[in-house]
């Protein structure tokens, strides 16, 4: 959009702003960001586009000051449905007398366009998305198509001092590096191609077996904006043709992703007990003082020191790989509810661990997933039982019916 706005002739610049308290959430997440930004710098330079990294106490202040200093005609920023992103964009708009445009490149159908309220579940938002999907699910032209040969290219672009940025802003929270994930758009697109050619058609049937390599592996790349949901959905749609949205990969990357963003945009308490649906809060309140057979501290959860080897294996996968199989993440969060003093502390624990250790932490999908597992978000009431109330229950026996639990435990 920024290229189109500039007409491809006027000078255009890519800016990324770091600030103190930057929500990279972990040192492993920060390292992933830096590696991706380094690649972006190289790509931008090849196109003759200046790439700058700003630093300061507040991102919106740094961007506003810089926009004034270079006399920018307009500022185009990314939509972020979480509170920090919404606040930063609003403060930026208020700090500038220039044109500020927020573009929703996270979703295929813009989040604010699809709904002006929190949706009840996938079935309500899916209908709205299906009506307009042909309008939005269209190919995005390459950047070069927008660049005019008559534009003035800055040949004196200075490289970013990455060592200085890493020294000043890298968190020291102890989350170790992740093996197996290579950051950057190039690797993200390679993983997308591998998924489309090797696993897409078995995804719907195999995705709930954590022993099979059936999932896309795209989550960190989507989270950090290194590939777009648009590109992934178009690639899948070309393979599937006119297949319906419900079920499978297209449903996950279009409907479920949009639903998570919708939840965080319209529910300010998305990462706490207060954000749960009323029926779940009422039910969990009734069972607040139910006897728990086991109660673990945050440190015990974090170090995979529970009595349940399946749960411990899931936590160890998160610690080692920076990710957890989607089916196991549901089990993982529900058992945190079962082994915590109350639902409030369970949600806090799940959010802390996911944000600290997962490469896609601090993301709407993570918050919505924890709220689904612990607080019944986007779900219905089930048969009432101790501790869980009417929130959906999961146990190891159910897992054993779906996959080889012992094989999974042996891997982690």
Automatic annotation (TrEMBL):
It comes from the Bacteria. It holds the Pfam family DNA_photolyase. Residues 1-111 form the Photolyase/cryptochrome alpha/beta domain. Signal peptide: none annotated. InterPro entries: Crypto/Photolyase_FAD-like_sf, Crypto/Photolyase_N_sf, DNA_photolyase_N, Photolyase_Class-2, Rossmann-like_a/b/a_fold. PROSITE patterns: PHR_CRY_ALPHA_BETA. Its cofactor is (6R)-5,10-methylene-5,6,7,8-tetrahydrofolate; FAD. It catalyses: cyclobutadipyrimidine (in DNA) = 2 pyrimidine residues (in DNA). Keywords: DNA damage, DNA repair, DNA-binding, FAD, Flavoprotein, Lyase. Its EC number is 4.1.99.3. One of its GO terms (molecular function) is DNA binding. GO terms for biological process: photoreactive repair. Belongs to the DNA photolyase class-2 family. This is Deoxyribodipyrimidine photo-lyase.
